[in-house]
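Sat 14:20. Reprocessing the chain from the morning session after the first attempt stalled halfway. Input below, unchanged.
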Amino acid sequence: MNIFIANAELRGINIKFNLGTCYVELYNQTIQINLRQKYHREKRITEGGWSTHDFVKSDKLEFQTGYTNKKSWLDTDNIKIEEQIPKILDYIENDCTMWHKCHIKNEIIRNKRALEEQKQQELERLQKIEEERKLQLYTDAENWQRAELLRKFMEAKKEDAISKGNINEETEEWMEWVTSKINELDPLI
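Finished this time. Tokens:
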């Protein structure tokens, strides 16, 4: 294990422990590692005729990496774990590099998506402002048209009152009231 640690540190791989589990870290990516004695499962028939399995220790070591999708290297008669350390470190380096690139790619995609959402929100905001301005324009035009119609009506009423000689204080008050309503309605005043 000392050889593994020394070679890992030469490659810039950090070894960390958390809650009794060992991890290697490279490019802020962590992978769980485990060195254990290999067990063999041997089938045995009990006295009652039932089959069961016993786990028997072997003199071989197994090095495992990963969480759920574990990759393992075993001692064999030809190659010992110590001789496989460069392959193990290459695998760890490639795996961490792959996950690092994947996280960078995902971050770029997230940033692009956020930028597109921001642009879309800005576009919707501008469209809403434009729609409100257009509605206000229509409302102002309609109010102006009504004000012009009321002015013509007031002038006709005034001419009618003058021609009949019915101009009195009540008619004057009515014309002042109509003029104030026209001024409230007319967007140009």
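The chain has a mean pLDDT of 90.
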